[in-house]
Amino acid sequence: MQIAWKKELEIGNEMIDTQHRMLVLLLKKLDLALTSRMDQKIVMGIMLEIKKFTEFHFLSEENLMAELHYPGLEDHERIHSELLGVLNVFIAQINRKQEAPEDILPQIVSWVANHVVSEDIKIAEYVKRSSFRPIAEDCYALYLRKYD
To answer: Which of 84, 45, 46 is nearest to 62 (CA)?
Structure first.
């Protein structure tokens, strides 16, 4: 499966974009484990890594929205909750061998991309217009950029 970071997925907030790149990297890691026919225990470990990172990422986004007094926070939290519910169902189905991870991976990749371009972009647009600034925004350059 073709999994790669695309510039179109950037929303313009370095912290969130960095986390989105990490999430795409974890999906790529899962894809490589599946195509290499890694042991089920390793695959499940990566699935749990994706779940835990997604939980962290959603909390980061929700904290950012709270810092900015984002008017769509409650709706976005609901969407995050629904997505985590779907991810939990996927993991349970894989554990019970009702679904194969390779059958679920395209769905996860699709909902990540769709969520970023349809929902997270709204946060980015709001950040650009808002007089409120993210906490530690001035530190992003120091901690989030690649150094040569």
So the answer is: 84
Dihedrals phi, psi of 77, to nearest 5 degrees: -60, -40
- Quote the CATH superfamily of domain 13-144: Hemerythrin-like (1.20.120.50)
**Which stretch of DSSP H or E encloses residue 87?**
helix 73-95
Of 11, 10, 51, residue with least CA distance to 27: 51
Spell out the residues 6+ positions from residue 87 whose beta carbon is closer than 8 angstroms to its own. 50, 51, 54, 108
pLDDT band at 5 (very low <50, low <70, confident <90, very high): confident
> Under a CB-based contact definition with an 8 Å cutoff, are residues 119 and 78 in contact?
no
Q: Mean pLDDT in the chain?
A: 90
Count CB atoms within 10 A of the CB of residue 11.
19
Asked if residue 83 has pLDDT above 90, the reply is: yes
Angle subtended by helix axes 101-115 and 73-95, to nearest 10: 170
Domain map (residue ranges) of the chain: 13-144
38 burial type by CB count under 10 A (0-12 exposed, 13-18 middle, 19+ buried): middle
